[in-house]
Amino acid sequence: MSNSAAIIKIVPSTPIIARSLQAYSSRPAGGVAKKPPALFPRYFNAGVFRIEVMRKIRTAMFGTGFMGKVHTEAIRRLGNVEVVAVAGVDQADAEKFAAAFGVPRAAGWEELLADKEIDAVHICTPNYLHYAMAKAGLEAGKNVLCEKPLTMTYAEAKELAELGVKKNLANCVNHNLRCYPMVQQVRRMIEAGELGDILIVNGTYFQDWLLYDTDWNWRAQAAENGALRAMGDIGSHWMDQIQHVTGLKITSLCADLQTFHHSRKKPKGAVETFSGKKLAPSDYDSVKIDTDDFGAVLVRLGDRARGSFAVSQMSAGRKNRFEFEIYGTKCGVTWNQERPDELWIGQRNTPNQIMIKDPSLMDPRAATFADLPGGHSEGYDDAHKQNFRRFYKRVADPSAAIEYPTFADGAHGMGLLEKVLESSKKRAWVDC
User: Which domain does 27 fall in, by range?
Assistant: First the structure.
């Protein structure tokens, strides 16, 4: 085993020694906790400590675009996981990514699934590839983390969720937006009854990166993306989030979808997410569009709560504004992803508050999603890291608690997306 694939861990050799060291280090000495004694060789010779060499978890990246980069960088921050291989649209694409990010191996995804040394895979490809890759990964004994939406259909997602349970493998759909510290603070406040009974939810997920008909991404066509683009790409996040933090399921909905650009100018070469604005008019071909630019949905949650949300990829000036408002019988809260460390708390009879992320002042369970002290911002990339950390905890220890969104959550989300599409076509309410 190479040093790059291992972690050296120095541990007490017995529980008694471990407890003694803990007591020693916590005993005040002039008001300051003492550090454990230096680890001189004699402690090892006397059997006080032993060295454990733990194999790093080895993962492969499927996909070399925007999300492939985000995932690779976040994985490397974990410490106990390394990206050992990458698969792209072809060998040249994979090799380019490998060279740019220092990944030692570039190969086809089927070849990587056959490698018994690879423990997990991340699927960051266009949506139409998710099902085949995830199914093959689980059948090959790999733990699988997949971007959302999980599949093209509810039936596919349900099959993957059942297969993940059958194989007893870690399976995660990347609803990373759950993992912001202040989102978890809202969740714990609601659990503790601080908002009272939930009455109203409201929100948006607005972007502008597809505002012009010259803006392009593979998501624009249903063949690679699925029938729902704005709703599938970012509406899936909003519905997952509101159910996660309130603990209430969406029970029925009424949706309206709209495509503003019925044709777009497709670049003659590949374009990465969010980067299409750099091209010239001569670089395009005109193509028909069969996915949504905008969607608005009325929702019922549980027995009592009501609400609405809208999603758009054509809202000028809104780069990635994900926002939810939740109002209960005691108070309300608002959180906006573009200001992730802030939580607005609204009161009826006392001044409203802005709570700033500070793990020392948060619910202890929410504070575990914050690695930095108050005044040190944590954002989009940190939310990925927190989700991945919990996924790989389960990879390392199959008995560990599941603290991340699973394929079952992904299947539930796909079911809701199909209901959104059904409602928009019928122009009517549908039960979920």
Answer: 3-55
Statement to judge: residues 320 and 238 lie in one domain: yes
The continuous run of DSSP H or E covering 309 comes out as strand 305-312
User: What span, in angstroms and rounded, lies between the C-alpha atoms of 88 and 49?
Assistant: 45
Do 168 and 192 reside in the same domain of the chain?
A: no
pTM, to two decimals: 0.86
Report in angstroms the alpha-carbon separations of 18 from 21, 49, 305, 406. 5, 9, 50, 35
Q: Where are the beta strands (DSSP E) in 198-293?
A: 198-206, 250-258, 263-267, 284-288
Main-chain dihedrals φ then ψ at residue 202, nearest 5 degrees = -155, 155
**Phi then psi dihedrals of residue 352, to 5 deg:** -65, 165
Cα distance between residue 297 and residue 291, in whole Å: 16
Q: Is 182 exposed, middle or buried (0-12, 13-18, 19+ CB in 10 A)?
A: buried
* DSSP letter (8 states) at residue 106: B
Does residue 426 fall inside a structural domain?
no
Q: Would 393 be classed as within a structural domain?
A: no
Six-digit token string for 156: 């596919």
8-state DSSP, 223: H
**For the chain, what is the domain count?**
3
Which residues, in sequence order, are bridge partners of residue 86? Answer: 61, 106
Per-residue pLDDT tens for 101-152?
A: 999 999 999 999 999 999 999 999 999 999 999 999 999 999 999 999 999 9
Same domain, 295 and 211: yes
